[in-house]
Amino acid sequence: MDCFFIVMAGWVFTVCLHEYGHAFVAWHGGDKSVAEKGYLTLNPLHYGHPLTSLILPMVYLAVGGIGLPGGAVYIDESRIRSKAWLAAVSLAGPAMNALAALLLLIPFKLHMFSEPDGVLAYSLAFLLALQISAILFNLLPIPSLDGFNFVRHWLPGPAREWLVQNGNIIFLVFIMVFLMDDMMADKFYEVVFWILDVMGAPLDLVSAGWRAFHFWR
Predict the structure, then answer these.
(1) 154: containing domain
(2) Catalytic residue among 19, 115, 161, 190
(3) What is the pLDDT of residues 168-213, one digit of tens each?
(4) CA dihedral defined by 115, 119, 122, 123, rounded to 10 degrees?
(5) Based on the number of CB atoms within 10 Å of its own CB, is 178 exposed (0-12), middle (13-18) or buried (19 or more)?
(6) Is the pTM here over 0.70, yes or no?
(7) Is 115 an annotated catalytic residue?
């Protein structure tokens, strides 16, 4: 169970890092209210509702191994200077996951672990894989995800309004299909592992971490 707690603690931190990225770029893009709301911090208590901000991402992680940060930063888009800045705000969260992935890769590249196949090594390897899954998943153009928020400002008005109004239902259906359709999930994780392989991440430790994290299976 040590792996479970290490990964969960690391995941909560990277969820905060993801949301901080959104807030940081929004502040530079014109929405100074994010500072007043307390978003320019890595304190998890400052990010929105505990259910959507932390609990649901942890449930997604435990059930399906999906690296999916929760929507916790409320941006006043009317204050953002341009569509380009709005797009940058959307991409800032996944960019922070990319930064976390690179930082997690460093100890493996530098052979820094006293136990190369120990619990800390495979826990961080799995956490690294979660960052890649979070980037890929969040960039899908599905309502409620960053990929949709990136493109929605350029969509025709009626289509944009319909997708926003029905976004929660569309997202819920997509999540259910993803969790139930083994073929879709397998293809997704094939891409995740391909990227990890290109990065030179230790795939054997990633797999060991996945098994240790899901200790109840």
Answers:
(1) 2-213
(2) 19
(3) 899 889 888 887 888 888 899 999 999 999 999 999 999 999 999 9
(4) -140
(5) middle
(6) yes
(7) no
